Amino acid sequence: MKIKYKKLVDAAQSLKQAHSGDACFDLGSVSHRQVSEKDASFHEYGTGLALEIPHGYVGLVFPRSSVSNTGALMCNSVGVIDAGYRGEVRVRYKSERAPYKVGERVGQLMILPLPEIEFEESNELADSARGTGGFGSTGK
Prior knowledge:
The chain has 140 residues and is mainly beta. Helices cover 0% and strands 36% of the residues.
């Protein structure tokens, strides 16, 4: 499958996998800004890239594993890029100081197909071994 992307600035890095067969494509940064003057711990990185994700697919943006070395957390845990979005792919982190420098890889992109789903309201659900147990019900 081919997915079109557009470099919005010359410095934007092309999408590529670090290793053949990797699940995700690295996202490099071309800009950094603090999102809010009231809370300086929100950092947004622009990738300088826009995508044309085909209908029936979704782009998911994950933090790189190296973020564990910074103490930063990706603000929305996983970014969702819908097929109709054509704006810049941006990644936000919450951290006391900027976790990355401009030019570094700040996230990773995965493209997945979406199943066709139709919800059906019902008064009964089938029993299961887990039942209604949640939030730690299977142990720590």
